[in-house]
Each structure stands twice: as structure tokens, then as C-alpha cells.
Amino acid sequence: MSLDENAEIGAPGYALLKAYRPFPGVSDELLNPQGNVRPVWRPFLNHLSSLTSEEISDRFARGNQYLNDAGVYFRQYGQEGANEREWPLSHIPVVISEDDWQVIAEGLVQRAELLEQVVADLYGDNRLVSEGFLPANLIAKSPEWQRPLVGIKPSSGHFLHFLSFEIGRGPDGTWWVLSDRAQAPSGAGFALENRVATGRVFNEFFAKANVHRLAGFFRRFRDHLVDLRDESDSRVSILTPGPLNDTYFEHAYIARYLGFMLLEGEDLTVENERLMVRTVAGLRPVSVLWRRLDAAWSDPMELNENSHIGTPGLVEAVRRGSVTMVNALGTGILETRALLAFLPRVSKHLLGETLKLPNVATWWCGEAATRSYVKEHADSMMFSPALSTALPFASAQTDFIGKDFHKFHQGMLETWIDNKSDTLIAQEAVTLSTTPAYFEEQLVPRPMSLRVFLARTAKGWEVMSGGFARIGRTEDASAIAMQAGGSTADVWIVGGKKPAKDTLLHQTESPYFKSQPGALPSRAADNLFWLGRYVERAEGAVRLLRAYHARLMETADPDAPLVSQTADYLKKIGVASEDPVPDALIAMLQSAVSSAGKVRDRFSVDGWLALNDLSQTANGAKRAMRHNSDIPRAMGLLLRKITGFSGLVHENMYRFTGWRFLSIGRALERAHRMTDLLSVFTEPDAPEGSLELLLEVGDSAMSMSRRYAVSLSKATVLDLLAMDGKNPRAVLYQLTDIKDHIDDLPGETEHGHLSDLARSVLQIHTSLAIATPETLNPAVLSELRDQISYLSVELTDAYIR
């Protein structure tokens, strides 16, 4: 490559390419076979070369900060278990011309039609097996073959609605399909986040680069799913395995982005052969379910009996046609690697066409003639389990090149192939094309594969104009997976004219109407309720710890009466006063994070970040604490962050039913804790200073001085902290808040009468409202505390169970 050959990119662009050495015999996305920069890359390369190294670093940091702020992560598995890791963005996008992309799109649409016909036959007439196009034992032995689904026709008329394909470019520049993903294709949400992050890195250039947008693809798919509902009041939902799944972030992100409910198996039940979601307003129908859960785990009654994350009876609901599954149960059979060996011939049989986008050459070793050919060419082939559904390069333990086998097992490969026979496939050892990555202030080539997404819409299959690129960590293509240290990149499809502005929102001239609020699943209500309780519980512990350590510093005597009683109280609620940042406090905040994590689709990004920051601050304080004198300051910092989080949620969260459960949890915990504190620290033999401590913990010392002209007394403290309906720290204020929220919940009245929960709240509220400070002795307060505590049980009985 010479500067003259690439004169259009300019000298700075050429300087970026000094270290760019394409691998011999490998196609490259940046450079054509003659070593010149492809025309579609030249504008971007000129823009990149106009930036200094410091500017590039700052911009990359901007993209990383966005991903960190948005909470994007992936779960990495290792010997120490699963850990959440920062999203590994390769900031240089993969740039593909509109014309090249059209070729890819046409080939993948054809392939999607082929897969639809294949899976329809496998669960229908099964002619492909009976006529010899597919081996019977290959299908029958596959764990993805779901016999209970045989003969069931999808109510929508289609088995497949959302697909992804892993593709790579071979040495001759031809794109190859490496893997078909039909079970529960992942990555579309991450592709959106990659786009936002990369768009922020190159914001000026991106705005004028004629890059195809992604929002229209999701809008048309969303509209199609909504149109598939059998009734206007039924719902479209997304089924997730739960927060421990490695792509849970994406499930929550897509649910929030499209406005669908995110459900787990326990949220659903089948009643009268219909799929229903448990909500706080009772059972509501779900007629379209976008499944992000492997089929085998979705119904323990008819599929995998060991599943604890499925919904009993789901298959029967599918059988009765009351729910459309996206994709249909059993479609994971299409991911079987061995099928790649037969699809070229099946395409000619079913479509009368050769594959426009061929898959990587594959041989199933279950036939003698094929085994003979494979053994002759074994050194140049990659071997994998025939029934594997894993992505290529996903596991070095199961995928290996024949010549590498020879290094360790000289002369044993042919015998091994014979022994494995029908459980083994051989594939052409794919040499992936390379794409630029930024390393040490230079562009360097790295192996790449693309994940491309297709969605069925009202007009047929549509290909997302872009995708999700996997970028190798080194020159070794086997290190392309994120679990192996690989990264991801945005994919830009660049056209000759500016694309039309497209968003997820409809632009319509039809009359405006106000939509009804969505139903709140009972599990989500439970997590929001406990999120409110855990955060408030942590705040109460922090306030009490701060008060305790301040008095300990004043007296330097842990046996002083008030210090000792406060330590005893902390011990009673499970908080060790001798620890600067007690484990119990850390556990409270972790429980809050866990509850919030289970409702990520209903939680704002800012709220999630604030809560994680709070938990991390507490952990950091525990590690960094050196002197007892630092404890009050550390507690003050935690308190400010807790109240900041609570204020953020209160001010920004829409007043849906979910907000009410969060608020009820917070109010109930505050009322319970304050009542308990009052019952202990207003005892006749309470140590001197107890009333001042109550005012400090109740954040009401200033209100006391303004509210009462008389000197401090037990009566005034009880009046202010128990009975004052205008003091946000008072018990009565919290009970009023709970009562008002419950008045707005579904089922507050039953046949014109108050529900049991509403009646209990009213009784407790009334008994406190008509009390006087003189009647609020410790015994009465203890009874009141127990009544408030029992409201949690009644709330659970009414809305959660």
C-alpha cells in the first residue's frame, strides 16, 4: 500500500494505517484485495485522522461512560463463577456499503423462508425425513427436538418471527452463514446500545454519514406483534429466564424500549387453556409471548420436568391456539450445527433455488462416504459435536482443527472419527475476514463476524440495517467470543443519500386518545414494595449508626447508658455497632439492588445508577475506613446518597401502580421503624438524651424547635414523631400515605365494602389519629408496631400471592 494509491484519504489517514498489515490470504473490510481503502471507509477514515490521539481517547471514554451510565454489562463465566463485566465496545464501527448489504439481506431473507419451511415440515408432515433429505436419527437424538409440539400449528400461521444469523466473509470476499439462531436470538438490544455509544463517540460525523437507522426495524416488528393479539385487551410480553441469565440486561432493555411487559415463568399461569399473567388487578390474558427462554425450560409438565423457571401448561395453551410464541417452541432444532450439511440440498428441494448466501461447508460424519472424504481432508477441517447449537469459536473444548488433534494424538484422528461417526460434524476451517480496531494509537486488523437480525413484519421479513459485530481480541479467530476476551462493535450501513428520519414513535393523524395504564405483574409489585422497604431500612440504620458513633465519640465510653442502649437496639435489629460499616447495612443495600435488578424494565437508568452507586459507596467505605472518627462522616455521605436516590425516584417515577407499591414499602418500613424506636426510647427508664436521639434519627430537631415553644418533653416528641400528620417522619404521616395509596389500588373495595387490607389500614390510622401523647405508652406503641408490621402480610395476601 502506498500513499499515492490512497491519496483520497490524505496523509493523516495514511499515518493511521502504518501498522495495518492484513493477514495473508484473508479478506479485509477496510482494504480491498489491491490494498486500497474501500470507498465506503474513506470518509470515516478521514474524520478519524482529523482527530488527535487525545481527542480519540476522550471520545472513546465518552462512549464507555455512556455504556457505564446506562448499566450495560455482560455476565462472564469462569472458575470463580459469574461476574458482571463492563461492556467491551470496540469503538471503530464496521462500515459496509448499502449495495453490499443488499446482497446480504436478500440471501438472509431467502434463508429465513427456507428455515420456516424446514421447521414447519419437521413438526408437520415430516417429509424431509421420510424422503431422505434429513437423517431421522439426527433429528430424533437432538435435545432441541420437542416431541410434544409435533402436529401443533402456530396460531399466527408462522413458526418463526425473529431470527439472527452469524455470518463471516471468506478469503474470496464471499459472505458465509456460520450459524442460524432461531431458539431465542440475542443481541438486538446490545446492537442498539452499541449504536448509541458509537454515535456519541463520532457524533459530528455520524449525523452526516448517511448511516441507515435502526428504530424503524423495531417499530415495524413491535407493530406486527401487537397486530398478532387475539383480543385488544390481551398483552404482548417478553419471557425471560430471569436476572441470572447472561443476556438479562438486553431483555429488560428491549422490554422498556418496546413497551412490553417483561415476565418470568412464575408470573404466568394457564387457566381455561389460556395463558394469563398474574397482576395486582388479577389475571390478565397474554396472547403474544416473545420467548427469550429456551423451549425445553418453558413448561415442566410437558418438556423438561426439572425446570423451575417455566410455566406449567404453556404447551397446552400453545396447542389450543390461545397464545402466539415468538419463536414457536421447538424451533431451536434449526440451530443444530449438523443441519448446515443438508440445507443446500434442502433449499433446492423446497425453494427450487441454490442458497444465495451459502453456509460454511459442513459434512455430517454419519455416512460412510462422507466420513471417508472427511478423513482425507481432516487436517484442514474443524470438528464439532453434530448436535451442538453453540456459536462457532464458542468453545475450544468442543471445537478444534484436525491438524491440532494430530499434534497430541498422532495417527489417532481417523479412528476417532469412525468412533464418533453420527455424533460428529466436520466443517471447513473458516478464516474470518478482518476489520479495523484501534490499538496503541494505530488501526490494526482483527477477526470479525457479524450477527444480523431479521424480523417478520406485516410486509414479510425485514432485515435490520446494521447489526452486532464480534471482534477478536487478537489475531486468533478463536478469541472472538466475549467470554474469551473479544469485543463488540456497531455496524454502519452507509448509503448514497441521507436516510429518512425514523423513530419508534408513530406519526398518525387519527384522533388522540389516552391509553390505559399497563397491568403490573404481581412479582414486579413485590420487588418494588421490597425495594422501598430495603432502601428505607438502610436509611434508618445509617441514621441510627451516625447518632450512635457521634455519642460514642463525645463520651469515649461504650458503657455510657445512652451509648449502650443504642448499641443494644442496633444489635436487636441485626446491626453490629462495633463495625464501622456493618455487614447488615451492606446486605440491606445489596437486597435493594437485587430487588431493583428484577424490575430493570420498570426502573429508570438514573435510578439504577444511583442505587448501584449507593451500594458501591457503602462497600468502598467499609474497605477504606481507618479511624472511628471517620464513621459519622461516612454515614453522612451514605445518608445523602440514600436520600438523593429516594428523591430521584419520587420525583421522576410516573405515578403508575408500581410507584404506589414502592411508596407503600417505604412508608410501611418508616412507620414500623419509628414506632419501634419510640417504644424503646420513651420507656420510663430510658437513658438521659434519648429524646434528643429520637429527634436526630427522625430528622426533626429543627421542626421541634419551631413547632413547640415549651421545653423538650416525651409528650412533644411523641406528638411530633408519632401523631403529626404534616411531619414526613411521623408515623401518622406514613399511615396516611399508605392509606391514600391503597385507596388507588385495584380491589380496594369489594362489592361496595372495604377490602381486608383497606379496613386494617383505616383501623390503624384511626386508632393513632384519635390517640393522645399520654395514651401512647410503650406497650401501646409496641402493639401499634406489630399491627403495622402485619400490614405487609395482608398486602402480600391481597396482591402478591
How would you explain this protein's 3D organization?
It is a single chain. The chain has 801 residues and is of the alpha+beta class. It contains 27 helices and 22 strands. The strands form five sheets. Strands 3, 4, 5, 16, 17, 18, 19 and 20 form an eight-stranded mixed β-sheet that branches. A hairpin with a 2-residue loop joins β9 (274-279) and β10. α16 packs antiparallel against α18 (583-597), α16 (522-555) runs antiparallel to α20 (631-652) and α21 (657-681) runs antiparallel to α27 (778-800). Mean pLDDT is 89; it is low at 1-5 and 510-516.
| Percentage of residues assigned to helices | 40-55%
* Distance separating the two termini: 69 Å
Q: Can you tell me the residue ranges where pLDDT is under 50 for at least 5 consecutive residues? A: 1-5, 510-516
Overall strand count? 22
What does the main sheet amount to? Answer: 8 strands, mixed
> Beta-strand percentage?
5-15%
Rg, nearest Å: 31 Å
> Mean pLDDT score, rounded?
89
Number of helices, where a helix is a run of at least 4 consecutive DSSP H or I residues: 27
Q: Shape from CA axes?
A: globular
Structural class: alpha+beta
Helix and strand layout, with pairings?
Blueprint: H1 10-16, H2 42-49, H3 53-69, E1 73-78, E2 81-86, E3 94-97, H4 98-122, H5 127-130, H6 136-141, E4 162-169, E5 175-181, H7 188-201, H8 203-207, H9 215-227, E6 235-239, H10 248-258, E7 261-263, E8 268-271, E9 274-279, E10 282-291, H11 314-319, E11 324-326, H12 343-350, E12 362-364, H13 368-376, E13 381-385, E14 400-401, H14 402-408, H15 413-420, E15 424-428, E16 434-439, E17 442-457, E18 460-463, E19 468-471, E20 487-494, H16 522-555, H17 561-572, H18 583-597, H19 605-624, H20 631-652, H21 657-681, H22 690-697, H23 701-707, H24 714-721, H25 731-743, E21 749-750, E22 753-754, H26 756-769, H27 778-800
Parallel strand pairs: 3-20, 6-7, 6-10, 10-11
Antiparallel strand pairs: 1-2, 4-5, 4-17, 8-9, 9-10, 12-15, 13-14, 13-15, 16-17, 17-18, 17-19, 19-20, 21-22
